Each structure stands twice: as C-alpha cells, then as structure tokens.
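COURSE: Structural Biology Practicum
ASSIGNMENT: Worksheet 4, Part C
STUDENT ID: 0417
INSTRUCTIONS: Below are two proteins. For each, the amino acid sequence is given first, followed by its structure token string. Answer the questions at the end about the second protein only.

PROTEIN I
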Amino acid sequence: MMKSTKFAVAFLALMSPMASGTGFIAHAQTDLERGTEIENFCTNLADKVRESRFQRQKAELEMLRDDIEKRVSYAEEKVSELKEWVRQREEFSNQATQVIVDVYASMRPRGAAERMQEINPNLASAVLLKLKPRAAAAILNEMDKSAAARITQIMAAVAESPTSGANL
C-alpha cells in the first residue's frame, strides 16, 4: 500500500501544472523559445565557421599561388640560361667555318699545330672539334703541352652540359 501512495503523490505533483492548463502551455512555450534560441545560435555559429573555413582556404590558396609563381620564375630563369648557353655554343661553333676547317685539314700536323698555337684558343678548339678525330689528335700531339692543355680544356667545356656551370 505504501508504494501506491508514493506513486499517487508523484503523479499529482506532476499533473498539478497540467491541471491548471496555463502551466503546461507556459512550459511548452518556454521549451519552444529555447529551441529557437538554440537554432539561432547554431545558425550564427555556422556562418562564422563557414567564414573561418573560407579565410583559411583563401590563405592556403594564396600561399600555393606564391609558390607556383616562384617556381615559374625559377623555370623561366633556367630557360633563359639554357638559351644563352645554346647561343654561346652556336657562336663558338660558327667561329670555325668549313673553309678554315678544310685549310687546317689539308695542312701537315706540325704546321697546323704551330699556327693554332698563335690564334685564339676558342677558334683553335672549334676547328679541332670539326676535324676528324685522327687529324685533331695529330695536331694536338704536335702542339706544346700548355697550348694543347688549354685547347683541350676548352673543347671539354663545350662538351659539358649547361647545368654543370661551364661558361665559354
């Protein structure tokens, strides 16, 4: 019997606001207003979160753009260096026209060596590069050691890649 009494008291306590009618409606309106406040808060917060995410993504994109611009600038610089290297190589190669090559090819190695030691080492190197290897070797063999070494260094530099830093 004791249990049913406690139950009845609890039931009456819960029902008392409902019995009056206005208490229950007031409770429902308060809950509804709280729900609207929460919804407004979440909506306002979502806008701030969206804006924050947008700003972070914008900053990341700007950093990526700057990185790409640096890489493009570096690539353009390298292309310019390569073009200059090709220009220098063509200029060097053009120094030895076929006529000069034919003249030195028809000379005896000793005479060709003596004359090549007296001309610009770049021109001598260009001529030797255009000669047949056997003829170029014979001429270098007749040259004095220091002149042959200097001309050989120039010839080797021409054969190097532009990225190794060789400049003519």
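PROTEIN II
(use this one for the questions)
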Amino acid sequence: MQLKSIIRRTLMVSAATATTLVVFGGQASAHAHTLPIYGAGALIGNAQVEADHLYVKACDFSADGVGIRAEYKTTSGVTDMVGDANGSASGCGREHTPSGFVSSYRVCDSTNRCSSWVAP
C-alpha cells in the first residue's frame, strides 16, 4: 500500500513539473529586439521592437544634434517611423503600430544613415 502512495506522489510531482515547464517555458523566447547605431565609434542611439511586436521605440543617447528614428514595416503592409522627439534627454519615442505586427525594422539618424532592414 505504501509503495502505491509513493508512486502516486511521484507521478503527481512529475506532472506538476511538466505543467510548469509548458506554462512558463514559452515565455523565455519573448524578448525585445534592439538595433544600435554608432557615430564616431560611440553608441548614439538605437531602435527597438518590443517583445509583443506591436510597439516600436527610438532612443537618442547623444547630445550631438543628430536625431534618431526607427523605421518599420508591419505584416499588414504599413511602413511607418517613430523618432525620439526630445533628443538625448531622458526617455525615448515610442508608438503602437497602426495595424499588424512589426515584420522588419531599421534604425536611422537624421543624416539618413540607416542600418539594414532586419526581422525582429
């Protein structure tokens, strides 16, 4: 009788562990995607697609008079952009895609120097 109880508990713990892995295992792959841009060898800003692929950010890190923007395309065919309106001051420009998920994006500066288009 006691052996059946031990086996039953072991199976219940194994099932609970497997359920935990299934429930939380997929969340580890959800992460933001970031493209940096450099000027004169220093990081001057970046573009970021958030983990849900619905929000895009542009961040300007350098008080050099050169603005930063993120350009993106969505699965519904929209092409749009967001800039960091406050320059290198704290905070970034952020917007929700008008429709669809971000399918590709790039980072550009105000001199029109841009990275290649990449998928998030």
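ANSWER KEY EXCERPT:
Q1: The chain is about 20% helix and 40% strand.
Q2: The CA atoms of residues 7 and 13 lie 10 Å apart.
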